[in-house]
Write a structure and sequence with these properties.
435 residues, alpha+beta, Cytochrome p450, 5-stranded mixed β-sheet, 3-stranded antiparallel β-sheet, 12 strands, 52% helix, globular, binds protoporphyrin IX containing FE, heme, oxidoreductase, Cytochrome P450, monooxygenase, Cyt_P450_sf
C-alpha cells in the first residue's frame, strides 16, 4: 500500500492553522508537501486536495464510500436528525423531502418575500447612516429564513424567533466544532451547556408554534409545515428530528447567505466599473425579484463573489471503504477534503485568480470540480438554488434604490466565525438613497 502523503506535523498547529487562516495554511502546505497533503487536525487526519481531478474523484464516488466527517463531535451540536449528519438511505430520503420546496416554482413565491425583506432592511437606515454589510446581510437573511422556512408571518413571532436564533448563533463557538474535548458540561456554565440551553429555548418555541398551527400545517407552504406533515410515503417525523432538521436549515442557510451579501457589497464597491454596469441593467429592468434572479450579470457577480470567498473553505468526508486518491490508498477512518479555497485560486483554471472579475462567469462555465462553493456530489448544498436566488434579489434590490459607500480603507480579509469564514470588519458601509 502506498503510504499516506506527507504533510505538516503538529496537531495543535494544524488545528490552529485551519481555524485561523485555512487558505494560507493549505497554500503553504501544498507548496511544501504537494497536492494532496496530509493534515493532522484535532478532528483526525485528513488528506486535503484542491486539484480538480482529485476533487472530481471525491464528488463522483459512490455515496457509500464516505461517512460524515466528525459526526460524533457534531451530533451534540446539531442533533442526529440534522441532514448534515444523516447517512445512507435516511439521508437520501430526507433530501428528497427537503429539496423540492427549495427549488423551482417555490422560489417565485419566496422571491417576493426576499425582495420585500431587503427593501424594509435598507429603508430602516436614514440617509448617511453607517452599518456593516454583515449586519444588514444578517438582518435580511435571518428574516428571509424565518419567513420562508419557519413561516413566521407576524411581527411578534418573527421577533421572538429572531432573538432565539441569534442566541443560538452567538453561542456556537468555533472551538466547539473543531475539538470534541471542549464539549463538556459544567453546571450549566460551559460553552456546550450555554449552547444547549439556547437551542432548547428555540425548540420550545418551535413546539409551541407547531401546536398553535395544529391542522393548518396541511395547507401551509412554509418548510416547517411541509416537513411536519405526513406524506403518502412517510409518517410525520418525530418532533426532535424535525427540530434538528429545521435547526440545521436555519443555521446552514442564514449565516452563509449573510456573509455572502457582505462580500458582494465589498467587491462591487471596490470595482465601480462592475457596479455601474450592474446599475445600468437594474435601471433598465422591471425591477421584479424574478427578473433579478434571472439576470446573467447578477448571477455572475454572485458566482465570482463565492469563488473569491467560499464561505465553507473545504468540504470533508470520512473514508468508509478503501479509497485511492492521487496515487495514495487512503485508509478507512481517514478524512478527505476538497478545498475550494485552493481550487478557486488555481491560476490554471482562473486567469488572475486574485482579481474580482465576474466576466469569467459570463464567458464560460466551470465544471463542478473547478467551482464548488456549495460542495458537491450527493451532499451538495440543498439550499444552493435558494441562496443564489436570494443573493441576486437582495443585491439587485438594494443597489437599485441606494448608494453605498465603503468605509473600510484597508483590505478586508476572511476570518473565522464558526464553521464559516466571514469578512474581518463585517464590511463597513454608509448608505444614501439613490436619486
Ligand atoms: C451562500 C450561501 C450558502 C453556501 C455558500 C452554502 C454552502 C454549503 C456547503 C459547502 C455545504 C456542504 C456540501 C458538501 O458537503 O458537499 C452545504 C450543505 C448544506 N447546506 Fe448550504 N450553503 C449556503 C446556503 C444554504 C441555504 C440557504 C440552505 C437552506 C435553506 C442551506 C442548507 C444546507 C444543508 C441542509 C446542507 C447539508 C446537505 C447534506 O449534507 O446533504 N445552505 N452548504
Amino acid at each position: 500500500m502506498t503510504p499516506l502523503p506527507p504533510g505538516p506535523d503538529g496537531v495543535v498547529r494544524s488545528t490552529w492553522g485551519i481555524i485561523r487562516d485555512p487558505r494560507g495554511f493549505f497554500e503553504k502546505s501544498v507548496s511544501r508537501y504537494g497536492d494532496p497533503f496530509l493534515m493532522r487536525a484535532m478532528n483526525g487526519p485528513v488528506v486535503v486536495t484542491g486539484k480538480p481531478v482529485f476533487v472530481e474523484q471525491i464528488f463522483r464516488a459512490s455515496p457509500d464510500t464516505f461517512s460524515v466527517f466528525a459526526r460524533d463531535a457534531l451530533i451534540p451540536l446539531l442533533g442526529a436528525g440534522s441532514l448534515l449528519l444523516m447517512e445512507g438511505t435516511r439521508h437520501r430520503a430526507e433530501r428528497k423531502r427537503i429539496a423540492p420546496p427549495l427549488h423551482g416554482s417555490c422560489m417565485r413565491t419566496y422571491g417576493n418575500e426576499m425582495q420585500e425583506t431587503a427593501q424594509n432592511a435598507i429603508a430602516h437606515y436614514e440617509s448617511g447612516a453607517n452599518f456593516t454589510g454583515l449586519q444588514i446581510g444578517t438582518d435580511i437573511s435571518l428574516n428571509v429564513i424565518l419567513k420562508t422556512i419557519l413561516g413566521a408571518d407576524t411581527a411578534p413571532l418573527l421577533s421572538e424567533f429572531r432573538h432565539l436564533t441569534r442566541k443560538v448563533l452567538s453561542r456556537s463557538w468555533p472551538i466547539l466544532f473543531f475539538s470534541p474535548k471542549t464539549q463538556f458540561g459544567f453546571w450549566g456554565l460551559s460553552p456546550l451547556d450555554r449552547l444547549r440551553s439556547a437551542q432548547e429555548q428555540l425548540r420550545e418555541k418551535l413546539r409551541a408554534e407547531l401546536n398553535r398551527r395544529g391542522d393548518q400545517i396541511n395547507h401551509r407552504d412554509d418548510l416547517l409545515s411541509i416537513l411536519a406533515r405526513s406524506t403518502d410515503d412517510a409518517p410525520a417525523p418525530d418532533f426532535e428530528d424535525l427540530a434538528d432538521s429545521i435547526g440545521t436549515l436555519m443555521f446552514a442557510g442564514h449565516e452563509t447567505t449573510a456573509v455572502s451579501i457582505a462580500w458582494a457589497f465589498y467587491h462591487l464597491l471596490r470595482h465601480p466599473v462592475w457596479l455601474n454596469r450592474l446599475r445600468e441593467e437594474l435601471d433598465a429592468s422591471d425591477q421584479q425579484a424574478e427578473t433579478y434572479a434571472a439576470m446573467p450579470l447578477l448571477k455572475a457577480i454572485v458566482q465570482e463573489t463565492l469563488r473569491l470567498n467560499p464561505i465553507v473553505t473545504e468540504v470533508l468526508r470520512i473514508v468508509r471503504e478503501p479509497f485511492e486518491l492521487g496515487g495514495y490508498d487512503i485508509p478507512v477512518g481517514h478524512g478527505v477534503a476538497a478545498a475550494s479555497c485552493l481550487t478557486h485560486y488555481d491560476a490554471d483554471i482562473y486567469e488572475s485568480p486574485n482579481e474580482f472579475n465576474p466576466q469569467r462567469f459570463l464567458d464560460r462555465t466551470y465544471t463542478p470540480s473547478e467551482y464548488y462553493p456549495f460542495g458537491g456530489g450527493n451532499r451538495r448544498c440543498v439550499g444552493a438554488a435558494f441562496a443564489t436566488y436570494e443573493l441576486a434579489v437582495v443585491l439587485g434590490t438594494i443597489l437599485h434604490s441606494h448608494e453605498l459607500e465603503l468605509l473600510d480603507q484597508r483590505e478586508v480579509v476572511p476570518v473565522r466565525r464558526n464553521i464559516t469564514m466571514g469578512p474581518s470588519t463585517g464590511v463597513r458601509l454608509r448608505v444614501r438613497k439613490r436619486r
